[in-house]
Amino acid sequence: MQVTSLRSLRVSFHSIPSFNLIPNTSLQNYPLLIYHECFPQSTSATAIEAHLRSVGVVEPQWRYTMYETTHFHSTTHEVLCIASGRARVCFGGEDNPRKVEAELGKGDVIVIPAGVGHRLLQDLDGGFEMVGSYPKGKDWDMCYGREDEKAKIGGIKDLGWFENDPIYGNEGPVLDAGNRSMKM
């Protein structure tokens, strides 16, 4: 499958400070990444899943929209590929003054580091659907920034980063993000 060339790919890197009990990017300093228009508009969810499997970094696990409640994962990073529709989403916690709100659409890819809060604000067209994927061998959990989750949050700092980019393989923005984090 053809994806946007790395030379032409527009990528947004976002560092989001912790807010209340949502650690966001503060524990590992890996940024939230958005690959804008990475997949062609004609790409189906099945084709996205096949591409992810062929690269072999993440395993597609579900197709669904995004939950409307702010949540994060403490056990793994997450890769979301927009398969249909458009939506407004919030990263970092809706009351966080340094949150990131973005309009995402078909073909976009989001790499969400463990600990980054995220939620759907509005499905703009109806039918917003993503392919949700996680690094091979990782299981995801659900955290909501509650007091009883503090022990889980502590484990985020020990999670490894991607050894290869989930879309591009042995080069790509995820690897640049890892190098940026090491220099911080």
Automatic annotation (TrEMBL):
Output the Gene3D superfamilies linked to this UniProt entry.
Jelly Rolls (2.60.120.10)
Q: Which CDD domains match?
A: cupin_YjlB-like (cd02219)
InterPro entries membership? Cupin_1 (IPR006045), RmlC-like_jellyroll (IPR014710), RmlC_Cupin_sf (IPR011051), UCP019307_cupin (IPR014500), YjiB-like (IPR047121)
Domain Cupin type-1, residue spans: 19-150
> What SMART domains does its record include?
Cupin_1 (SM00835)
Q: What is this protein called?
A: Cupin type-1 domain-containing protein
Q: Give the organism the record lists.
A: Rhizopogon vinicolor AM-OR11-026
